[in-house]
Amino acid sequence: MLTAEQAERGIDAGASFLVTPGCRPEVAQAARTRGVPVVLGALTPTEVARAVDLGAAAVKIFPARSFGPGYFKDLRGPYPDVPLVASGGVNAGNAAEFLAHGALAVCAGTDVVPPSAVEAGDWAEITRRARAFTRACAAGA
């Protein structure tokens, strides 16, 4: 979600939570007004603080790959109680490490659901990738 209008449409369509790629005050306001939790995107410690101030239920660190799992351990220092979600470049090979370093959750993207597999209708391959990702996350728990 990038705009309040998109947030409203999502909520009207039945969304039980919203996610943004960055700190989007207008999306946070729409979510708050409608009583829907929002996960705001951030990268820097300042952006994490802003997301918390805007009422984020959790903060999505994006792109997580750029700073790596150790960055989550670093963010735990000043933000020990903020739920952090790793997004961007998370895959079966590194998901458990993000979780071990302080991420509450991880997001899977094109590594699990490649656009080419969707286009080809290769649901078996997507299922295989999703199961591998889930197993990798569970192994790190």
Automatic annotation (TrEMBL):
Quaternary structure and partners: Homotrimer.
Keywords: Carbohydrate metabolism, Lyase
Superkingdom per UniProt: Bacteria
Family: Belongs to the KHG/KDPG aldolase family.
Official protein name in the record: 2-dehydro-3-deoxyphosphogluconate aldolase
Gene3D superfamilies, per database record: Aldolase class I
Pfam family of the protein (one): Aldolase
Pathway named in the protein's UniProt entry: Carbohydrate acid metabolism
